[in-house]
Amino acid sequence: MVGVYLDVAPGDTIREVRSSRDRAGSVVAYAADAPTATFRASSAAEQIRFQPASPGWPDAKDAAAG
Length: 66
Hints:
By secondary structure, this protein is an alpha+beta fold. About 25% of the residues lie in helices and about 15% in strands. It is built from 2 helices and 2 strands. Strands 1-2 form a two-stranded antiparallel sheet. The protein starts with a strand and ends with a helix.
């Protein structure tokens, strides 16, 4: 079983992670053993994509500058 929790929505600005409160979400996996849970969580996390704002959107310059 895998749970994916996102704390952002389309159009939100995602800032640099400086503490755990800054994270955009989390992936949690349950399995009979740690290697299987790690594999499941990693597989789920690899499918998550965040797209940068288009150049005309507010904050796009800030996001591109890093």
